[in-house]
Amino acid sequence: MTDECHICVIGSGAGGGPVALRLAEAGRSVIVLEKGPHLGEKDFAKDEIADQRRHLFTPSLRDEPQVVETWDDDAGGWDATPTAETGWDFWNGSLVGGATNLMSGFFHRMKPDDFRLRSAFGPIEGATIADWPITYDDLEPYYDIVEREVGVSGQVVNHPFADRRSHEDFPFPPTLEHPFSAHFDAACRAMGLHPFPVPRAVLSEPAAGREACAYAGYCGGYGCATGAKGSSRAALLGRAVATGRCEVRPRAMVRCIESDEKGRAVAAEYVDEHGAVRRVRARVFVVACQAIETARLLLLSTGPRHPHGLGNRSGIVGQNLIFSAAAAAYGDFPYAKADPAFAEALRSPLPFINRAVQDFYELRDPATGARRKGGTLDFMWIAPSPIAAAISETDEGAVWGWPLKERLLRYFRGGRHMKCEAFLDWLPSPDSRVTLDPEVKDRFGLPVARVRIARHPRNREVARALADEAEKILRRLGAEGIETSARGAPSTNLVGGTCRFGDDPRTSVLDRDCRAHDVENLYVTDGSFMPTGGSVPFTWTIYANAFRVAARIAETLGPS
Amino acid sequence: MKRRTFLAATGAGAAGLLALAAERRWRRAVVVTPPDHAPRILSRAEWGTLAAAQDRLLPSGPGSPGAREVNAVGYLDGALAEADTDPADRDRVKQGAARLDALAHDRGATSFADLAEAARDEALRAFQKEDDAGEWFETMLGYTLEALLGDPIHGGNPDEIGWRWAGHQPGWPRPGRSGT
Question: Is the ipTM, as predicted for this complex, more than 0.90?
Fold first, then answer.
């Protein structure tokens, strides 16, 4: 069976939602194909066993594996392991609205120099750093649109890396803050730092038919039952469907995009929930399946003019896979050591601290004193997932019996536990990449994504420097038992780079409008387009860019 | 790379709790264990041995609920019965039970459950020193702590006894809302 529409959008998260909404508003017919189920506020519950332990929102890793390659120093080669053996996978939010349903919504914009990382900081050996073909000023109006369309709560506070903005302040006031936030501000200012409220893609007030945040805890990793969280589903897709011109088809697994003798994309072929094969013909195709699965779909979509995959004349589809490199610091605030007023404040059930520091967005090279990129420090209470916390107290099964119960009581009743997440650049390289696995297939019979994770040593150096700064702040805050982690490990939920955009078709997959250089009616709007991702979470930038590309597609199509 | 102890457990909704199944048709299954159910995966002997082991992994005391109070062995059996539970988990749990009984034999008892508490702890420590025993402890502690701190809808944590002990405030809304 074949259906027709103007725009076929594959994937319904931060990359897909803005395109569906804008093109439907512009009078175009839109079909959104999403491999996961269609769930809404009424379906979401705060259920650690189902949502976290049984990974309700990702496919079974035995039915739909990926293969992860990491470097094995002992063997001197790449070690490939199917995700079902390790549980370490790169699926995120397989449901309508994608991973935006499950995000914490810590929203930061990229900085102007993030758009020109190579020019601003120079090349780094072993890293394929490229300037973006657009500037902060080109994207700024769309960051602004996201504040209104998705809903961002915040408060502008001046600091050395504060954003240039079109509107003086955010459209929604900050979400309620834990009393600790005031303590955080005072301690950081005493250190000469500039703490600021983290903008959140969480409504602090009802708007557009969505309720405000209920401060019910269990936020990141869980679906939002009030609609306050600015998921693509809650904020955008419902409005797209309400135009009468957009249809969202859940449980639709696209297995290839067919192209004709001229090289144009003509139809998306998908398997529906009953196993039937269906097709959607469209004038324009927009792929937004997250960077890993997007690369896989393009590589699977060979055609007469695209023998190595759709849009892959350059041969670099899948290469330059980036993540948000991570560092973290942890500290405890025991009630027993706090004075009574502070202990009382610590016990407040309000979930959000909402504080960040970007004073270390640039660092100095310890040897040469040269400027180098640093990153963002976000501070938060460790998310209340009691089973995960308890399991971590067992030290991988070593601690049990009464010693374990004493640890659990100390953890749960003895104080509060803080985490600092550091966001920093993951340096791209051709070796960090997605290919089709030569052997492993999924339940649809399709080769799965083989994800090679090549780490540049600089990631770890910067991670260490940021973790050290986070440790100093935690110490100043009065934390005990401080631990840091600076592995520069890849984020599993923030991925990009596999279809980088640029002006040179030999070194980029997409042009500056995120249209494939060699397929005139194919666009990619998830994080795949980013040659570098900034030292911030990607989501706001992906949303903003998708609104930008949607505007370009609407212009290209002309009046409807 | 940290090994995730449990692989995604998915499959058909458990029988007997139709409300949950109806509400969560999309919800690939979730462990649901009525407290009085007959063993589905474990033999009677394994049930007894593992219950005795869980009783030492998560002991009970005055005002301090342990494996017994949170229906940990029933929860374990239910979790292992889920269609998409990794078969390796089932094998590992059962092999550990057999090993504990063998250690009990060495100590002159007919089964692990017949040992006194101190002797059970000693046998568990001996087991823990063996190669590959670490995964058994991780697996067992994982399921046992799920029974202590998971939502009661899954069959553990009756009357939120584990949450109350820990002082944990659950998120809202809870699973199993009616009419959805």
Answer: yes
